[in-house]
Design a protein that fits this description.
Blueprint (H helix, E strand, L loop, with lengths): L4 H6 L5 E5 L2 H9 L5 H13 L3 E5 L13 H4 L4 H18 L4 E3 L3 H10 L2 E8 L8 H9 L2 E5 L22 H13 L2 E3 L5 H10 L5 E2 L16 H9 L3 E4 L14 H15 L4 E3 L9 H9 L22 H10 L4 H19 L1
Parallel strand pairs: 1-2, 2-4, 3-4, 4-5, 5-6, 7-8, 8-9
């Protein structure tokens, strides 16, 4: 493991988005014959927001595409095939856009970002369904560049129940093997969307820091996607980090959400476990038609409430990231602490685990 100390010396002020979902747009548009999708459609907004690294998710859930209006993705009936296709699309698109984009696989890749003036991409699996019940598949995905994995993605699989399952349990015997193997090979464990019991199981056995890439505090907003305070505290004890989600149903139960609500969740988590354990994972699905949003969330129905994709006032685009930074500064956070929240904390976990 890398201690992370060297990272702090050379990579201050890098902004890390711990959860994005550009792959689906890249995959669909490449199936139409487009090229350099990231560079032409998404890079300008990432640059406007000051994003340096994005953790992009290449699929993984078993039911996500059952009603999803994407012709290419619907051609794959198997979650492993879909994930492999997503990995290939991201590598191809990044290679074509190589003057601006780099896929990150190790500490040295992070170190070179600033001097190259590129956007870094950490490839992640959103849910462990593609590895089936085979640790060899987990290792193969690692060799293909996957450096982080949600154990579940709002639906149970061979690893664990999810936060969306009724009477949800925790890790299976295979799930325990997965956690140990991810520790061994250096893949970041992501607890977002995992069941409460599953989170407790992971936190009992992991030897490495973990993240919850796009999660908020359930004590501020009672939603099954959010984390209980005891889970937040245990994540902090691993040295891990929680990335704040910007979707309004996860920020507040009533009323219009704003960037200040994001700050309230950051405040709560910082007060519980310290500012060194908070990051941002906005999961802001920008440049997506509304019907794609509705198709994804229509099959999940988390909390029994419809999910509207009207993002918070002051944070309706990745280009609005400076608004969050300014809100934190106005709320009394020092510039040093804001830099930690905006990226340094997540980078510390990546460097420690990788």
């Amino acid at each position: 493991m890398n201690s992370g100390g060297e990272m702090k010396m050379t990579n201050r002020n890098l902004t890390v988005l711990a959860h994005t979902d550009y792959m689906i747009d890249v995959s669909e548009r490449r199936s139409w014959g487009e090229h350099r999708v990231l560079e032409t459609r998404h890079l300008p907004i990432l640059r406007a927001g000051g994003a340096d690294i994005i953790c992009d998710h290449v699929g993984g859930r078993t039911k996500m595409f059952s009603t999803f209006p994407l012709k290419k993705m619907l051609s794959f009936s198997d979650s492993t095939e879909r994930a492999l296709h997503g990995v290939d699309c991201m590598w191809q698109d990044a290679n074509e856009s190589s003057k601006d984009i780099r896929i990150l696989q190790n500490f040295d890749d992070i170190e070179s970002l600033r001097k190259e003036n590129k956007i870094g991409i950490v490839l992640c699996l959103q849910g462990g369904s593609p590895i089936k019940e085979d640790l060899a598949l987990l290792r193969i995905f690692y060799r293909l560049g996957i450096r982080c994995m949600h154990l579940t993605a709002n639906v149970r699989n061979h690893i664990s129940d999810s936060c969306a399952d009724r009477n949800a349990g925790g890790l299976t015997h295979f799930g325990v093997e997965v956690v140990n193997e991810m520790n061994d090979i250096g893949m970041v464990i992501d607890l977002a969307q995992l069941s409460h019991k599953g989170c407790l199981d992971v936190l009992e056995i992991t030897d490495s820091p973990v993240i919850a890439s796009n999660s908020n505090a359930i004590s501020l907003c009672n939603h099954p996607r959010n984390l209980a305070d005891n889970v937040i505290e245990l994540i902090g004890k691993t040295g891990g980090v929680i990335g704040i989600h910007c979707l309004p149903p996860f920020l507040k139960e009533e009323g219009v959400a704003s960037v200040e609500d994001m700050v309230q969740h950051i405040d709560h988590i910082s007060n519980l476990i310290g500012v060194d354990h908070v990051g941002i994972g906005p999961d802001l699905l920008e440049n997506w038609p509304k019907e794609k949003h509705d198709a994804i969330w229509g099959i999940q129905q988390l909390g029994g409430k419809p999910v509207e994709f009207e993002y918070p006032e002051g944070f309706r685009s990745i280009a609005d990231i400076p608004n969050l930074r300014n809100a934190l500064l106005s709320g009394g956070y020092s510039a040093t602490d804001v830099n930690k929240i905006m990226g340094e904390n997540m980078l510390r976990v990546f460097c420690d685990v990788w």
